[in-house]
Specification:
Helix content is 12%, strand content 43%. The protein is built from 5 helices and 31 strands. The C terminus is likely disordered. Strands 19, 22, 24, 25, 26, 28, 30 and 31 form an 8-stranded antiparallel β-sheet that branches. The chain starts with a helix and ends in a 24-residue tail after the last helix. It is mainly beta. A hairpin with a 4-residue loop joins strand 16 and strand 17. The chain has 3 domains: 99 residues, Immunoglobulin-like; 87 residues, Immunoglobulins (Immunoglobulin-like); 171 residues, Glucose Permease (Domain IIA). The chain binds zinc ion (ZN).
Length: 416
Amino acid sequence: MPSWIRFLAIAPLLGIGSYLWPILSESTPPRLQLSGLETEKLYRGSVTLNISVTDDRPGLGLLTIQIDDDPPIPLSLATDGGNYTYWTLDTTLLTDGAHTVSVTATDKSLRKNATQQAIAFYVDNTPPQLELLPESRQAWQGKTFGIFVQTDEAVSALIGKLFDREVTFYPMPSENLYRSLIGIGVKQPPKNYPLTLTATDRMGNTGKQTFTFEVKATVFERGGYITLSPEKQKLMMDKSKSREDNAKRGNAYAKANREADQLWEGTFIRPAEGRLTSPFGKYREYNTGVRRHHLGTDIANVVATPAYAGNHGIVTLADRLHIYGNAVVINHGQGVSTSYNHLSKIDVQVGDRVERGQRIGLMGATGQVTGSHLHWGMVVSGVAVAPEEWIERDFSMPTADQLSADIDVKSTATGE
Ligand SMILES: [Zn+2]
């Protein structure tokens, strides 16, 4: 055997071996630290992942990054000689949803000691998509308009614009379903209107969609001539008295607009026994020459007939008014109030929590009336609407069959 071959055979044991040995035997993998992208978090747009990698010996061999199942991409360390680098991830190139990024650092040893770190994260670059439920395409004069919106993801804000007013949506128990209840005025011109919805998701992606809905004409009963006594005629024409009443009532209704919780449950009950003498919206004439829609439903019975809360709520008015006599207003939340007027006695106080069916007072003939009756009112988003509808329909959830039946009750007018 030539001597040079013998030398090669023993070389690893001599000087060359002392150099190669650590590369062969080293078993400590590189240390890897990632920041800028966190597990389980949601991202949009560009995100910078900072990578710091150290390997004392024999040194870093290969550094790669891999997005999902894509081929790994080799990375090089910063050109300033530091043990770091960064990777800018353009999340717009990824689909919305779950993704994983993994970084692998391998050292130069023959064992190829490697460290891998993976981060599972979410991407959302798409604004919420909105769907207006079919029933929310039609509204009726003098009725409650339930606008139900289904979104394809959770939203942090949903704001509507309708009749040049901002409308508030509240989340429903059903996932990604939102509702706004709007009172349509008896005189709202019947035609198509735009409803603009702006939704923002948790990532701040904002989408705006405009829908069209139609206000349909309600056929209101006409007729009835109300003869008020000279004293009550004077009261009716005294604008300062009605202004005073309206300020107090407006203040009570405004409290319901600020109540984000739905206090009522299911359908409402009719608040008193008796004959329906004047339906909501009936166009009537007074001996004062005034002609106007009746903005409540009259239930006539003898004085001291009990009056009950239509549903759960908080009393926001319990006062003696000029036109409405002894009046109670109950806030049911989310802009919904009911009122009970011309009472002979009030059983509750402002701030009281009342239950559906709880007695709140006794029927009477106080204020501008021609006989004992309960003027039962309903106000939704500041607008008077037919209360009867709430007895038949549970506005808690959307329903396919929108109630459009007109209330047809023969009437004998009994004032407000
Ligand atoms: Zn009335």
